[in-house]
């Protein structure tokens, strides 16, 4: 038995895959503690883990971030990404470090499994020298000599001109990211660690073991991957909530089932749900729509007769019945769909979602709408093309086989055990 400390950022999209990993580790007899937000305590304790809540670090409501971080208010698009990185992920690192150092002094662990966006995990690993694995539940944004910078919705162009473009963009992104690097240095000073030349986005990642949801086919095929990188496939989202009373209509439907979701961040239903439901009302399909907010099962607009609405739907239960998924591009949801061989229409608006949409289109497993706020005509055209061209579904099924073969939560547990025993 090993003592495992799991540090996960308190967002539903991060917690969901980590819950599957914690369940696997606990089932193997390991003593697991989880450092995360208070809102997720009950879910982890139900698995048999102990929970260390954010205390010195400012805990927050993921559906009202500006209440805790006023600097996030009124910053759409790329400005939101930069503000989120600084306020949520970097500057909370001082408080995370204090919480984790206190936990280490009280009860040291054998191995730390940290969210690859947890600054606190990287800082406490450096402070204590403990064994440390990172798990990236978002697409890897590690720079590569072969690729454009992440987050720009750009696909690689393997030509001399494309290489020159990407090199210039990498330089410009580093310049634009200088304030974030300064913030990281200030965080390091705040926990009495010396300055470093290592970029903050690499310092988050363990040099011992880097685990990543996804597969090589969804990472553009870089020639310079980190030597400690292990792709672990997909962990389909699950839910302990009871199935909605209309679930039998899904299981017995003779019409194609289309799943529409905006994930759990930026969930204004007028951005994607409203135009998608309007578009699909013109087709003979059964639509399942999720709002992404616990307890919210109604939408602020007229819902077509062929639509069923829930707050959350267990994706692992829904995907076997699903023909197409229309999504704003959360990585976990995208991987869950692809692991079931379901092709996608992706409306990625901000944060990492434009990059995810571009990856799906590059792999030919779906269509990138190239906006987070499409109109009904755009959604309908994408849906019609997706269902008319069999190549999209064939590619999704091939990617699904690859993602399943990479192992998911059991593979992650295997790798953590190997590191703990090293």
Automatic annotation (TrEMBL):
Annotated coiled-coil segments of the chain:
none
- Organism annotation: Naasia aerilata
GO-annotated molecular function: transferase activity
Phylogenetic lineage: Bacteria, Bacillati, Actinomycetota, Actinomycetes, Micrococcales
Q: Where is the Erythromycin biosynthesis protein CIII-like C-terminal domain?
A: 301-402
Which keywords does UniProt give here? Transferase
Q: Cross-referenced PANTHER family, in alphabetical order?
A: STEROL 3-BETA-GLUCOSYLTRANSFERASE, STEROL 3-BETA-GLUCOSYLTRANSFERASE UGT80A2
Q: What is this protein called?
A: Glycosyl transferase
